[in-house]
């Protein structure tokens, strides 16, 4: 597996600083969500080449998959994002599902989501991009988010039935929503393109809470997963020291 950091790991520092730190720590990529904030993408691409690591994931321009009235907006934003990915060499695009729409049956919203993803799939396939749908917890951080549970997320991916539409499995969110992390993180591994990790409670670096990340990451590794695991977390100590501890206590022992 490959490890990535997320923008904001070094508060107040820009994308180039983050990339240089990722290279220094021997990690493999940077998740930079709002790619449209980067400015000159060709200049960023040149800096990536100089440093030797790049942006491994970005986000879509909008996050609403369940409102069919927003489908064209979502697809247009996805196309813009894919053009940015071509310049940056990025292969993963993260999206969320949007908030539950009151007054509409859940089955109707879910059907709209599947149809939107089916229309996105050939666009992503042609570009060599994977669109990653991310379930989020609705208890602490994202009340009202439409898809929260692993089983439902996996079923939606199965209905879309295209390898260019998969999941981000965020261990922090799924621990809050449903627990049973190792079972779910491995059971649905064929539908997962990317993992996010942070400890719970607090969403800080692994090793600060209740999750046994050595066991979790070993189990994920044993499925044959060789993609990105992103540290999407805050830090209770200096970021560099926290990453050193993570590499020493967890990554080195996988």
Model description:
With 254 residues, this protein is an alpha/beta fold. The protein has one domain (2-253): Alpha-Beta Barrel (TIM Barrel), CATH 3.20.20. 43% of the residues lie in helices and 15% in strands. It has nine helices and eight strands. The protein has an eight-stranded parallel barrel, surrounded by six helices. Helix 1 runs parallel beside helix 2 and helix 3 (71-88) packs parallel to helix 4.
What is the string of SSEs from the N terminus onward?
EHEHEHEHEHEHHEHEH
How far is the N terminus from the C terminus?
A: 10 Å
Query: Order of strands in the sheet with the most strands?
Result: 1-2-3-4-5-6-7-8
Helices, by number, come to 9
CATH superfamily: Divalent-metal-dependent TIM barrel enzymes
CATH topology-level fold name: TIM Barrel
Which residues form runs of ≥5 with pLDDT under 50? none
- Shape estimate: globular
By CATH reckoning, the class would read Alpha Beta
Helical fraction equals: 40-55%
Radius of gyration: 18 Å
Report the biggest beta sheet as strand number plus sense, adding barrel if it closes: 8 strands, parallel, barrel
Strand-residue proportion: 5-15%
Mean pLDDT: 98
Q: Supply the helix-strand structural class.
A: alpha/beta
């Amino acid at each position: 597996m490959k490890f990535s950091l997320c923008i904001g790991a070094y508060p107040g520092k820009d994308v180039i600083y983050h990339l240089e730190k990722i290279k220094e720590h021997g990690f493999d990529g940077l998740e930079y969500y709002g790619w449209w904030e980067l400015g000159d993408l060709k200049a960023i691409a040149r800096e990536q080449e100089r440093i030797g690591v790049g942006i491994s994931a970005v986000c879509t321009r909008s996050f609403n998959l369940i409102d069919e009235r927003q489908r064209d907006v979502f697809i247009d934003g996805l196309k813009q994002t894919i053009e940015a990915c071509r310049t940056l060499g990025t292969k993963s695009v993260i999206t969320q599902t949007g908030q539950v729409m009151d007054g509409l049956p859940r089955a109707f919203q879910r059907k709209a989501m599947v149809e939107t993803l089916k229309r996105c799939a050939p666009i992503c396939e042609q570009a060599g991009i994977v669109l990653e749908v991310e379930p989020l917890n609705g208890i602490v951080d994202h009340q009202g988010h439409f898809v929260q549970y692993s089983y439902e997320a996996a079923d939606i991916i199965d209905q879309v039935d295209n390898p260019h539409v998969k999941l981000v499995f965020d261990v922090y969110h799924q621990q809050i929503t449903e627990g049973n992390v190792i079972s779910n993180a491995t059971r649905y591994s064929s539908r997962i393109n990317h993992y996010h990790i942070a400890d719970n409670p607090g969403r800080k670096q692994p090793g600060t809470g209740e999750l046994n990340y050595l066991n979790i990451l070993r189990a994920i590794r044993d499925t044959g997963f060789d993609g990105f695991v992103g540290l999407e977390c805050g830090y209770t100590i200096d970021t560099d020291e926290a990453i050193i501890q993570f590499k020493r206590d967890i990554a080195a022992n996988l």
